[in-house]
Amino acid sequence: MIKEFLIGCCYYPEHWDETNMENDIIRIKDLGFNTVRMGEFSWSIFEKEEGCFDFSLLEKAVRLAEKNNLYVILGTPTAAPPRWLTERYPDVLCKNSDGIVMSHGSRQHHNHTSEVYLRFCARITEEMAKTFSRFKNVIGWQIDNELNCHRNESYAESDDIAFRKWLKDKYGNIEALNQAWGTCFWSLDFNDFSQIECPKRTTTHKNPSLVTDYYLFLSDSVINYAAIQAKIIKKYMPNAFVTHNGYFANLDYKKLTDECLDLLSFDSYPMFFEQKGIANGRQAEYRLAQTRGCSEQFLILEQQSGPGGQLSYLLPTPVPGQIRLWTYQSILHGAVGVLYFRYRTALFGAEQLWYGIYDHDGEENYRSREIRQITEEIRRVGNVFLKERKHADVAIYNDYHNDCRRKSEPFFEDDSRLIFNTLNGKNVSTDIVYNLDDLEKYKVIIIPHIAIADEMFEQKLQKFADNGGVVIISAKSGTKDKNANYLPIKNPGWFRNLTGCYVDWFTALPDHTKQFVEMDNKRYPAEIYCETLQIEGSSAVGYYTEGFCRDKIAMAKKGNVYYLGFFCKNSADVYYDIIAKHVNIATPLDKNLEEFALGNYKMYLNHGDAAVKCSGYDLLCEKSFTEIPAYGVVMIGRE
Ligand code: GAL
């Protein structure tokens, strides 16, 4: 689909004096870019009054881009409905779970289910697609912008109506729903679909099946919203790609990608994680792996290019080298194009503090110089990154249905991100997979607390294990049905035969309860919840060390299949040490150095703030090196 590496930035012609437009586009080209993204928030300009369309400003920008040999990716403007629309049709606004309306004045204040809103979105998309289908340099479309970014739940009247319809389609009649949800518990039986509402605030815990279905529904309603736009764009521009920029909660990105998109995209802001106290830009790599799991080729539609801020906060400024480092981070984790957010910092509006490549003054700075270096390198070696990357040996399984189930039973925290970060941080390249259909290419599959499973799921794992694959299954897996109800079987449910063990006792581990597991004379923390195991066809490979559980079995192994009867909260080293028994892992030269094999090349990314001793000839800078500087990136030929 993408045949040439795309490198560019986001540009908002409506934010600048029209007389500067040509100069802006020339300067964008001069940065070494080949692509520009525009249009995604300009609805009030495109349709100033209901039904009066005017795309002339954007047409002028697209024409100038064409003149300067720039590809264009256009965004549909539906993340920012204009005032005339919300004033005349207030039902399009979304409500929070307390029924409070999100008023006009920011963005993403609409719901995804209002028939009126869907109609207006379809119309603006159609007018836009019709208009811009004339331009050959428009190569792709972004639907909406960051669906579910500012709010990922909605409780408007239209959501209740759509939820009822969704349930009726799913269950057919109310008796079937009552049965599936176990509504006889706490007298929650319904007589009719019309009595059901999206799960608003209640005195205490809600029915978990209802909650699970609500989150499945939320995702489907967003996918339906996106699908309407995708279909229209494809009608007018069948050769342009359709994408969307993730990654946020309550949306099944795999389904979104499969049903509506040619490829998924991701917006990478590594500094956000520093704001959350995790001083390590590598945290973005989990999201990159999730995106890659949905979409073999993907783009970064927004790559952080300056200090970010939104009036109430300001993130630290990337130090020299960091923008380049993050760019290669995105690329080496699979991106086939990177667009920086944004060309120049806005002088007004809610994101005056969100800095782009250029500051408010628009003059050259250290960031624009760094970007020029990147684009010059990409010009020389960019096509290497389009070639197939070496796939990972290890995969972590995840699926949206189990995510929804976790919402209904949040006590059992998901530790898959921790497992990913531990492995990835130690140079074990790791994928996220959303189904078990393509496991042959992996050596290890991790099934982290996947409660909803079935016989077919178990059989696929068995086949993988029979063919020599390593399977690691962890506590509370395999015991729930699709409605988030427990099955009348012992843990680990569907996986009892596969793992050769069962759970005979368990306990919660509140923060003050210390528990450890010992394997090969090494101790690992067990957290949140732990199970003691009985062996039936497997052997014990790990034991608890404390209190009542002391000397009881924590980990079992049957052939290549491991069962870990506990959760991790602070350290997932146990997963690394199990994998290291089966897969050759090269010890990184330094803990901050990320290493990639790429066809005939090898690349090193130094995420640390100190230089790492290492020598060779760097193909990016075209000179020999004896150390990789702080935040440095080098590319060498493979022996
Ligand atoms: C993204 C969003 C952009 C801009 C940027 C900086 O989440 O897509 O429109 O808001 O963040 O805040």
Radius of gyration: 26 Å
Global shape: globular
- Mean pLDDT across all amino acids: 96
Helix content bin: 25-40%
What structural class results from the helix and strand content? alpha/beta
Q: How many beta-strand elements? A: 27
| Quaternary form | single chain
Low-confidence sequence ranges: none
Strand content: 15-25%
Which small-molecule ligands are present, each listed once? beta-D-galactopyranose
| Biggest pleated-sheet summary | 11 strands, mixed
The span between the termini is: 31 Å
What's the tally of helices?
18
Q: What report would you give on this structure?
A:
- The chain has 639 residues and is of the alpha/beta class.
- Strands 12, 13, 14, 15, 16, 17, 18, 19, 20, 21 and 22 form an eleven-stranded mixed sheet that branches. A nine-stranded parallel sheet has the order 7-6-5-2-1-11-10-9-8.
- Helix 8 runs antiparallel to helix 14.
- The longest helix is centred in the middle third of the chain and has 29 residues.
- The protein starts with 5 loop residues before the first strand and ends with a strand.
- The structure holds beta-D-galactopyranose.
- The site of beta-D-galactopyranose has 10 residues, from loops.
- The site of beta-D-galactopyranose (GAL) has 10 residues, from loops.
Q: Short summary of the structure?
A:
With 639 residues, the protein is an alpha/beta fold. It has 18 helices and 27 strands.
How do the helices and strands line up, and which of them pair or pack?
Blueprint: E1 6-10, H1 21-30, E2 35-38, H2 43-46, E3 47-49, E4 52-53, H3 56-67, E5 71-75, H4 83-88, H5 115-132, E6 138-142, H6 157-171, H7 174-181, H8 208-236, E7 241-243, E8 245-246, H9 253-260, E9 265-268, H10 271-275, H11 284-294, E10 298-304, H12 322-332, E11 335-341, H13 366-381, E12 394-397, H14 400-408, H15 416-425, E13 430-433, E14 444-447, H16 455-466, E15 470-474, H17 496-499, E16 501-509, E17 515-519, E18 522-535, E19 539-544, E20 553-558, E21 561-564, E22 566-567, H18 573-580, E23 593-598, E24 601-606, E25 612-618, E26 623-628, E27 633-637
Parallel strand pairs: 1-2, 1-11, 2-5, 5-6, 6-7, 8-9, 9-10, 10-11, 12-13, 12-14, 14-15, 15-21
Antiparallel strand pairs: 3-4, 16-18, 17-18, 17-19, 18-22, 19-20, 20-21, 23-24, 24-27, 25-26
